[in-house]
Specification:
Layout lengths: L1 H23 L15 H16 L10 H19 L8 H4 L19 H10 L15 H12 L6 H4 L16 H4 L8
Length: 190
Amino acid sequence: MRAFLFGLILGLIALPVGVYFYFVTGSAPVATAAQAMPFEKMLAHKALDARVAKEMPHSVPVAADESAFRAGAQVYRDNCAVCHSFSDGNPSGIAKGMFPRPPKLLQGRGVTDDEPGETYWKVANGIRLTGMPAFNQSLSDQQIWQVSLLLANANKLPDALKSLLTQPQTSPGLGGIVPSQAASPQPNTH
């Protein structure tokens, strides 16, 4: 029995020490092009699913109508498409360099099978270790609901609204920047 307890205690000490050395020796994959760590995807999804299920709102305070979808499309174009792509599904240069790859929200089922409250939670709070930022400081509650409703109904939108979700025209010489974005450069505060 004494040998068993000694082995148990040694194992309980060796495991965290081994994990610590895995990280501090540079063995853990940290580049976006590297393979995922063992169990990383499974543990991250389980944690996210449990947290969202516990905290997401279950009632939607915004009507799912054309005006909400139109406003949501503008929010999507301005804030989401750079990572999640436009309706053509072609990823941007930013999206190509991200790990994990951001889902294409307007292609296939996307988030149309998610409740709007689930999408609302993800947009408002962001998702740690994915590149998905929290928008609760930069978008209003109304805007977050509008884009959440748009995405929940993306597979049912009329063609007039779908056209709002196409790739914007860029101007040559601006490096792929939409002219309206180039007109007002933001000062670098870093």
